[in-house]
Amino acid sequence: MTIRILITDxxxxxxxxxxxxxxxxxxxxxxGEAANGEEALRMAHxxxxxxxxxxxxxxxxxxxxxxxxxxxxLPEVExxxxxxxxxxxSVSGAVRAGAIGYLLKNTEAEELHRAIKAAxxxxxxxxSEAASRLMREVRAPESPEALTAREIEVLKLLARGKAxxxxxxxxxxxxxxxxxxxxSILAKLxxxxxxxxxxHAVRTGLVSMDELSEESW
Length: 217
What we know:
The chain folds into two domains: 3-133, Rossmann fold (3-Layer(aba) Sandwich), CATH 3.40.50.2300; 138-216, Arc Repressor Mutant, subunit A (Orthogonal Bundle), CATH 1.10.10. It is built from ten helices and six strands. The chain has helices spanning 12-22, 37-47, 63-73, 88-97, 109-120, 128-137, 149-159, 164-171, 175-189, 194-203; strands at 3-8, 28-34, 51-54, 78-83, 101-104, 125-126. Strands 2-1-3-4-5-6 form a six-stranded parallel β-sheet, sandwiched between helices. Helix 5 links the parallel strand 5 and strand 6. It starts with a strand and ends in a 14-residue tail after the last helix.
């Protein structure tokens, strides 16, 4: 089963380079290229990719706005921010908009391949530099509803980069049960994405920064 990818970047040479790197892996298929966020949103509706690689600084519609629109309108499509920008506002904006991953353009090709596969699987992917910046941004909710013991177990595994299927296997329950737990965790913490929930787990000491996304790297 190949993972279908939409590349979004306003530089043709970057799109071409990414396509070349990604198509070396038989498990990855580039189904389209977009030059701005508006194009990415339209093409995501047409092509229904598994993962959108999203540059953040683009004309017409920037990557953060496009990420938010894609995640709202096509929640089954995961977005990975791939950018040269490491400003706090960009990192937190992308994650708040629903990006499951945040990688820098100097990421090695092999790491990029792994990150895309992990994102398609619903696993949180953050460059370590981005994770440390996000810790300053993501505030614990004022009075979060208490998580159950099982939800805390699920949150810890989610923060360590595990996919729902892996969490289900580890806790000896069905994948649907884990999906329900994850939905409940997000609602109780008042966050929109698994990535924000994972950062909450680090901030509150459930997992260490070193453990964040450790499964995939």
